[in-house]
Specification:
single chain, Rossmann fold
Length: 434
């Protein structure tokens, strides 16, 4: 008798069992047990559990690789740090996640010297060791334009946010810049600040970029073109750049710019007029230079007879260009032609267009489309020249900034559009420097 026959009693002749048969059976439970052959395939639920194990392992492995990429690989770290920086720039404050996840840092001040005189530095530096890959830190030398911007809340916020994501920041200014003066000699001040940053502990001397805001963009480009550091500069960022200073004077005189075939009104604020007036005054006799400065914004004591008050060659022509009181194209071109040779040479010496061929690094150009300090067409001209030369660069126009500072009251559409452009620039800069 087989095992199956022993465990499965069946009434004779196929008759159904009586109720008493089940009650009196010695092994009633065995009748309902199905015996599975030894060579039967595994049950489907077990296969599902195996697939679940493997899928969990794959997910964990992918999460590990993603974490490794975002925290260790330089390109991944740039993506992560860009995401941490973007809210700080857009809100002009540091969100809690950046403060919690960011590195501690120190803020120190230093004074160094250059050929032009004193250079004031504000250094924001992470206190920990550099990341194991690449084993050093990147640095930024930032030139925050004219005037004394060292206490500007948005500059401090940006500097601290950059330090929290591991970037060494060296902000620089000089007595001349504080006094609303931009001079070609200040190029050496930027070079000395750059060399200072390169000597800081843990900084990669070939991972340093220069950031120029407004008038600082001129000095950033002049310094990056200098043979002493041009092969060390990793990149340049300009925000509200001048490209050709003679063209800027022309736009001041016309009180409009031409963009996309249309005339766009341009009425400059007093600050850039003061910078240009100081520039012109330096080429005039002292008494005439002061007369010119006093007659223009922000002092605004217009001259009733500029030709008599400013007899030096080209002085009255410069006054008309800055005052915008002779604004026809013919008058503007006539006044430009009447500028003194000394002033024309100075305007050329300050123009990044003159040194473009000597710059060896990528450039990132940013400009406020409604800028009333420097016409946005300057960065468009910069972009066009770089494109013609085949230089690596990126260009972005924004509507959420006021010159170089984030403004308030913009809607969701501009925030998303400009925020995505800004994030691309941030990650590009952080990838390049690391």
């Amino acid at each position: 008798m087989t095992e199956s026959e022993q465990n499965s009693p069946t009434p004779q002749d196929g008759a159904p069992a009586a109720a008493g048969d089940f009650l009196t059976s010695a092994k009633p439970a065995a009748a309902s047990v199905a015996v599975i052959p030894r060579d039967a395939p595994p049950k489907r639920p077990r296969r599902k559990r195996q697939w679940g194990k493997w899928s969990s392992r794959v997910v964990l492995a992918l999460l590990f690789l993603l974490g490794f990429f975002l925290s260790v690989v330089p390109a991944g770290r740039a993506v992560m740090r860009g995401a941490l920086l973007l809210p700080s720039v857009l809100s002009a404050t540091q969100p809690g996640v950046l403060i919690a996840a960011g590195e501690p840092f120190t803020h120190t001040t230093r004074t160094i010297t250059s050929q032009a005189g004193q250079v004031f530095l504000d250094v924001y530096a992470p206190v920990g060791a550099p990341p194991p890959i690449p084993g050093s830190r990147e640095a930024l030398v930032m030139i925050p334009g004219v005037g004394d911007n060292r206490g500007d809340p948005q500059l401090i916020n940006l500097s601290e946010a950059l330090a929290r994501v591991g970037v060494v920041v060296v902000n620089m200014t000089t007595p001349q810049l504080i006094g609303f003066e931009v001079e070609p000699a200040e190029e050496d001040s930027v070079i000395q600040a750059f060399n200072f940053a390169a000597r800081l502990p843990g900084v990669n001397p070939h991972g340093i970029g220069i950031v120029g805001f407004s008038g600082g963009s001129v000095l950033a480009c002049l310094a990056a073109a200098d043979a002493r550091i041009r092969d060390q500069v990793n990149f340049i960022v300009t925000f509200g750049a001048l490209y050709n200073v003679t063209d800027v004077i022309r736009d001041f005189g016309l009180r409009y710019v031409v963009a996309d075939g249309q005339k766009v009104p341009f009425n400059p604020y007093p600050d850039p007029i003061e910078v240009m007036a100081n520039l012109v005054a330096g080429t005039l006799p002292p008494n005439e230079g002061q007369t010119l400065i006093d007659s223009l914004p922000p002092y605004s004591d217009p001259l009733p007879d500029p030709e008599s008050a400013l007899p030096a060659p080209g002085a009255a022509a410069a006054y008309h260009l800055l005052a915008g009181d002779e604004a026809t194209p013919a008058q503007v071109e006539q006044n430009l032609a009447a500028l003194s040779p000394t002033l024309k040479q100075l305007l050329d010496a300050l123009s990044p267009s003159r040194v473009l061929a000597q710059i060896h690094c990528p450039l990132y150009l940013l400009h406020d489309h409604n800028d009333r300090y420097i016409p946005f067409t300057e960065s468009r001209d910069f972009d066009a020249a770089l494109t013609r030369l085949g230089y690596p660069h990126e260009f972005a126009e924004f509507g959420i900034f006021h010159h170089t500072e984030i403004s308030s009251g913009f809607g969701l559409g501009p925030l998303l559009g400009d925020g995505s452009k800004l994030y691309r620039i941030l990650t590009g800069v952080l990838s390049a420097s690391s």
